[in-house]
Every structure is written in structure tokens, then in C-alpha cells.
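Review box. Two proteins, two foldings.
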Amino acid sequence: MRYKVVSPDGTCVIGADSGCLVTNSTTTLPMGSQTVTVNEQLYQVRYSGANSHLNDSPSSP
């Protein structure tokens, strides 16, 4: 099963489509994450890849 994460404004944040901001695992990147901008807001995205289990992390205030 493949997952796709889309923001409320319709931006594909994580997914296999070429238009998504994160398409591959970020585990090999520095800090294990990729910085993306959605609606002028910066987010640190961690994505372990398409074959990994889905889980979430609590947000920091």
C-alpha cells in the first residue's frame, strides 16, 4: 500500500508522484529529514520510505 500526504491547500507533501515535495526516504539526508515549504510555512519532514509502516510523531508547540 502506498500513502500520500496532502496539506489542506492541496499540496502533495509526501508521495510517489513527481509533484510531491518529498518522494523518497529522508533517512540518508542530514538529520534524517527534509525541509519543505507549504503555504509559506517551513516543515521538517521525516519519511522512512514507501515500504515502511505509517506512524506519526507528536508536534512541538
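Next protein.
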Amino acid sequence: MHDRTVTTAAEPGEEVTVAGWAHEIRDLGGIAFLIVRDRTGKIQVKFEKDAMDDALVETGTEVARESVVSVSGTVEEEERAPTGVEIVPESVEVLAPADPELPLDPSGKVDAELPTRLDNRTLDLRREEAKAIFEIRAEVLRSAREAFRDLDCTEITTPKIVATGTEGGTELFPITYFGQEAFMNQSPQLFKQLMVGSGLERVSEIGPIFRAEEHNTPRHLNEATSIDFESAFIDHEEAMDACEQVVRAAYEGVAENCADELATLGYDDFEVPDEAFPRLTYEEAIERINATGELDTQLVWGDDLPTEGEKALGADVGGHYFVTDWPSEIKPFYIKDYDDNTELSTGFDLMAPDMELVSGGQREHRHDHLVEGFEAQGLDPEAFEYYTKMFKYGMPPHAGWAIGGERLVMTMLDLPNIREAVLFPRDRQRLSP
């Protein structure tokens, strides 16, 4: 279909062929209309029954909705048409008929529950609202990559099948690898750290991660997209600067390039964060959460921040914010502690604004301290020798972070469920489609 014209490019006076889906048929008696939809929009096809071949009219007006059609004809100006033009057809071909009994209504006139939509994702993404989310998601990833280029990163791809888990524990999906036990990788963490010790020094990756978490909530997934950054010769403060730069770039890209999609979703006042994200210490965070009075029990040093606490603090702050200086005991082994206070880690989280969006920190680059960290968390250093031995050969100070890609889209668009931001989500109940 090399001569196909997209619907929004059809101009009065042109002879065109448009192809797309039969979105709607309106039969008004002596005249009927077929609305054809493609990825760019919709166009009206007019059938004057008395003036046209009966077979042509029948093909164009009796086709089942969502069938794929090709229409050739002349474009005429028509102010009453949805797009100001219409096609007077010379031929209509049904390229792929659709079953009249559709599992959901792509026109959106009849709502469908989320499970039904996820079971029929191809049909679901024919809805303008669903399609808009994924156009925005694509822009978020494109903008993140551009920001990484501005930060002088080398984009890498790390293995997703590994011999040991990034952080140990039970959140691993085991697989059989030629008779050996292997796992789906939880994170590119260890590999991206190895790369800052190579000649690359500063790296980024956007790719899948896998976590066998038991959580079954609107904000958790078992397969997710991680947006990762790691750099030699920076500390955790500079890593937060880079994190803020990438998050803001994602918002700016969407604001600049997704006006139609935002309008489709009803965002007339989409805001790009324009002020520096506040940086609260963990101690300040639990004090402010306690002061809100939203929790049944007061938080104490060493507690993780509960969901209710994150929401209370987010409402108090009113936007994105970092939580820094976490207790060492609740951060992973690879996060470096402060030299003058080993009870405090350089770990940080970025909240957006009522859930964790980013986890990061300065890394422990000293071999002996790293091995001690493994042992302190009950992990066998020998199982990670491929990683630890490289720290004997000149590993520079380094820091980095990872953004949850779906959480970034979810919080940006205020989606009620993270599954809205995934084409084919994987959770405890869903392994197909």
C-alpha cells in the first residue's frame, strides 16, 4: 500500500487511498457515513446511496466495526465533518473483517474493566486514551536517552540471565540454564558498577528487570523497566543532580511533544517540575511524617517508610523530593556508608511525590569493605566473585541510581494502576497474554 495517505494528511481536491479501521458507521437513510481511523486520526467517508453503486454502498456501510478497510476516492471539503473534510469513495475494500462480537468497545462508548482490557490489549490500544499513555511512555524513554547523552553516558545492555541474584534473598525467578540453576536478573546493578571500572566510566541502560515479589498492589510489577545510571568519580550528591536532570527532561519532553496525548487524557495544566527537588534526610522525613499525625504509630529510627507515611510526606512537601542519609542497616551491601559515621549510608530515594520512584547512592568501591558488607547481610562473597574480584583492580569511587520506568509514567499521569503503563503486565496472577 505504497500510495496510502494517512487520514490527517488528506487535503481537499486530492485523490487518495486511506487504510485503517472501521471506527463507526452512521446510516441516515439516503446518505450514510463510514468513519475510518488510523494512528493519526479519523476521516469521514460519505455514501450517497442513490448516486453510487449498490455494491460499493453495501461494502462500506455493512462492514463490521473494527474491520480493516482501504478506501480510495476524492477528498472534498465539508465543514460539518469531524475533521473538515470527507472522502467520496470510488472503491472500498475490506482487508480483514472483524468479528461483530468484540470483547471491548474501542470507541470508548462502553467502558471495560482493566482485566478485560489487559486480556485484549491489541483492541484496548485502539482506544485514544490507552494509545496516548504509550505514546507518552515512548516520549519519556526517548527524553531519558537524550538526557543520558547530555550527561555523556555510554548506553549499555547487561545480561538478564544471571548465576546469582543482585541482592540475594528470595525475590528471584529461578530458571534452568543447560542443566544449571540460573535466575532472571533483579537489576543491572552489579554489571553497571563493573562498567564504571572499565574504560567506559559513565553508563546508562533502559531495560527489563524481574522481581519475584509477593506484592499484589496497584504499584508493584514482577517484570518492570529500569532506567539506570552509573558514573565513576561522582558522589551521591552529584548522582542526585543527574537524577533530577533526567526526570525533569522526561517531563519537558512530554510537555513539548505530547500535547495531543495530554489533551486526550484531560491534562490541560500538565506541569513540568521547575524547582529543585528538596533533599530531606531520613531523620527529617520520619519527623515530618510523625508530625502529620496520619500514622497509627510513630516511626522510629530504622523503620522503612510505610505507604501511608510516603503519602503523608508527599502531601506535606507538595512535589518530588529526595530522602537521603538512610540508616546503613536498611540499605543494600553495595551502598557506601559515610566515612565519619558508619551508621549512616549515602543511599537516597526519590519520591514522586507519594511513592518511591528512584533508589540510588554512592557505591562502596573498596574491596575489603565490600566483602564485609556481603557478610554483614548474610551473603556469600564467593558466589559474587565475578563482581568482587574486579574491585581489586582499581575500582574508582562511583555513584548511580535506577528509576522505575512504569512508576515514572504512572506518577506523571496520575494513573490509578501501574498496569495501565505496561503493554502486557506480569504480576502474580497474570502470565498471559
